[in-house]
């Protein structure tokens, strides 16, 4: 039996690059966002807030990233999960840091979840597009 397990995690350099790319995409869309990137344990690695982005969206972006990495699924996928298993909604929506709005994505590398990215401040579709742009800039699709 192994006592220690090695796990891949995202670098802070890649996390910062993702934030910058997400913000650049938001600028091209004409929206203002907050973007957070966390490591595989849900710890904040990088964060960027555009001038004028909603203040409340700071914690929402962080929570989207945390939720995406902790459940290893996009935050926007929860609505379909609740459609299939409505009983889950009763308990999960009351959990701290649980977010069902799109814009939070797990970051995978070599078959492992190495982090999460969360974007908040625009529409759900724009938030997710910015998150995907951030991941793409770091070579993650």
Summarize the structure.
This protein is α+β, with helices and mostly antiparallel strands. It is 43% helix and 19% strand.
List keywords for this structure.
141 residues, globular, 5 helices, 43% helix, 4-stranded antiparallel beta sheet, alpha+beta, Beta-Lactamase
What does this structure look like?
With 141 residues, this protein is an alpha+beta fold. It has a single domain (12-137), classed as Haem-degrading domain (Beta-Lactamase). It contains five helices and four strands. The chain has helices at 12-29, 57-71, 78-84, 86-92, 124-137, and strands at 34-39, 44-49, 104-109, 112-120. Strands 2-1-4-3 form a four-stranded antiparallel β-sheet. Strand 3 (104-109) and strand 4 (112-120) form a beta hairpin. Helix 1 crosses helix 5 (124-137) and helix 3 crosses helix 4 (86-92). The radius of gyration is 15 Å and the shape is globular.
Mean pLDDT, nearest integer? Answer: 95
- The number of distinct structural domains comes to 1
Distance between the termini: 35 Å
Backbone CA Rg? 15 Å
CATH architectural group:
2-Layer Sandwich
Which secondary structure elements does this structure contain, and how are they paired or packed?
Elements: H1 12-29, E1 34-39, E2 44-49, H2 57-71, H3 78-84, H4 86-92, E3 104-109, E4 112-120, H5 124-137
Antiparallel strand pairs: 1-2, 1-4, 3-4
